[in-house]
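Exercise 7 asks you to align residues with tokens for two separate proteins.
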Amino acid sequence: MNTVSEILSYITDVAPLCWQESYDNSGLLIGDANALVDKALLTVDVTEKVVDEAIENSFHLIISHHPLIFKGLKNILTDSTIGRIITKAIKNDIAIAAMHTNLDNSFLGVNKVLAESIGLKDLQILRTVQQSEIQVGSGMIGILENEMSESEFLNLVKSKLNVAAIRHSELLNKPVKKVALCGGSGSFLINDAKRCNADVYLTADVKYHDFFDADNEILIVDAGHFETEQFTKQLFADIILKKNPKFAVQISSVKTNSVHYFV
């Protein structure tokens, strides 16, 4: 058995909470840091179905990427979804923690596993925040082993990320070799990707007017928020098991993607 804080420390060792953005709410959100747990349920989002899964399988720790409690709460009532989730968690002694932008900003975090999933090499942080010798910052940029066409790259993303549909800026009919990316909402890094002479910028939640920023210089690819962060669950598992191979982890079987496609 380990304490909740011990298990969370495995993740914060590679993604300290001080690396999270000022607007974020990463860390232990519900529960007792000193409570003993023997396993953890891993998810991108905490939904009511995820908490029900934890209850049914006797999990007393849920680790998610997105914080359940993000904005200020004025009440906790069971006639709201978040109220029911919090109430169920407390009644069943379930601790809930989030590792969000601290993991986004870690070189060993969300963007690294996304980059590796599509085969990028020679990885570097796209927008670096200087902190001693450690690379910390937003996004990532790397090189494909083999140059490919834009349509081949889109098919690669569709296959590796299991995406139902991809939104993108106008095709430039140029080869793709250098790729910048940011899992989740990454429109704020479009100009950084252009500055680094990336052929493609892969991210999510790109607004209509943001696509104009491609300006015939880069291909902007929106592959979906959940889709570009889906590997975070396995990342949690890998980090924890590397530190403590005897601790039990399970990736939630609940599909928490809130976006559905009619194709």
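Second protein for Exercise 7:
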Amino acid sequence: MSKIGITAKEIHKFSALHCETVSDLLVVEEPLEIRLRYGNKQDRQEMNLAITMRTPGHDFELTLGFLFTEGIIQSKDAVQSIKYCVNPKSNLEVENIVKVELAPNVQIDPSVLQRNFYVSSSCGVCGKSSIEAAMQHCSTQIIAKQTIPIETLYPLPENLRKQQIHFKHTGGLHACAFFNKAGELSLIREDVGRHNALDKLIGAHLSLNEQAPFGLLLSGRISFELVQKASKAGVQVICAIGAPSSLAVEMAQSNQITLVGFLKNNQFNCYTYPERLG
């Protein structure tokens, strides 16, 4: 089991003139099982909540962000601890299984947990057991509509690329970052899965006890689930280098989020709430 996000593999590299054997760097994709313990002190219950295919690293942030964006918890205070499980035979941590201890006063809604245990790295919604569960609207309400100067958006993709540590070696990672009204990137996370990268980012933000982030930058396209997660975190502006889906636009509209796509080469498309772009 790899402990880092990159691994080396010997490959055959072909060109029009010759073939050579070289060492190539690949992004790591491994399963992470999330187990949940909940209930009052006298009657603790345990369940296998989900298995997600992720890039190792920031596993506790990923778990915290996943629980929050799925609506299982409303704040990090609901979590007593997140730990790797321990192999009883070797007494060593198993770094692909995490156990979450919820506070005894946290009430679990069984309908929220209607998700299959396997979640692929490419699509977080694939594990949802119903369209209704997938389409649940977030409870976060954006009150103040702050504005951001248009010119602060243009440098965002290049600034993100410069800080993508693993992407420049592998080309196989999605990235996302929070940014403020001055266009400054704060937190950045990478993962083989788009939804995992965002869960890691949101989990890291929750751990810092900061106010809701203003803007979110995505390295790829915008799916409705990413908008759903961002809305839960209180994001007001979502920018992406790629395109949004129709459902992503609808969700951004209903959640009062300014949605920007194709942000590159000093141009972009705005799909919702352009009045935030001052």
